[in-house]
Amino acid sequence: YNTAFEVVRNPAGGSFTASKIEKTLTRTLTRAEGVITSSLYVSGLKADIPNPVLVELIRAYSWDVDFQRDIRSGDTFQVMYERVYDEHGNHVHSGNIRFAQLTLSGKRHPIYRYRSKDGDDDYFDERGQTARKALMRTPIDGARLSSGFGRRRHPILGYNKMHRGVDFAAPRGTSIYAAGNGTIIKAGRNGAYGIYIRIRHNNRYSTAYGHMKGLARSARRGKRVTQGQIIGYVGTTGRSTGPHLHYEILSNGRRTNPMKIKMPSGRKLKGGALAAFQAARASIDTAFSGLAPKKVAKAGN
Ligand SMILES: [Zn+2]
Fold it and tell me: How far is the CA of 207 from the centre of ligand 1 (A)?
């Protein structure tokens, strides 16, 4: 039995009563998949994946995947997530992603949701390495990014000798995230960068964000930030041709290519913990291959 709370508004008095009710919740697994066209978000919605699951999926890959440069025509996604039903068979909500896989330029990127014995609940790759990295490759709300291929309006520059960062073209106001835990060491106007933030992550790495429309309220010099925290919003301040985030990763103070950098990795399971994970992974693989992909009604058919 799972405990749920039911809140009932009393229509006459305008007061609320809350009662604890026992409900039998059933979890079923759903499999969905498709080809990425303009963006993972848009293609995911077309595959009938619920919005919260899709947002979670994009976030789970934001450490590893540059959603504007790594997506190519023909790349695919697969996801297996929970659907939760009450005792009357009504769909209550969508639950966790249990497994997902992006296939980018022919290379598979599987992730498995796994709770280890010591209670860590995270996404791991097939070798038991956390998908979470010290720094995010896409430090922006990925649901609002379209893939770079076929784009015409704003050039989205990659890293080269003249341009020592990467650009993410996104609608004005899109949330920008701190790529990792750290301390804000610069926040405010900075010449051609426009409204700018620089975060120091450790002795070696810092990251910088330019052309913002504005800073988040809590983003001030000297403040600590945590990975994924909103630090500002996409704009086109400074020397800029359209709304985009200019993102730099600095290693020992030098701007480096975020596409090439070997991201400092998270934890890796070892010994008994790794063996337990591999057993769980095998049963997730079996569950996934046993499910038929969700059928999606196509418009016009
Ligand atoms: Zn740039």
Answer: 13
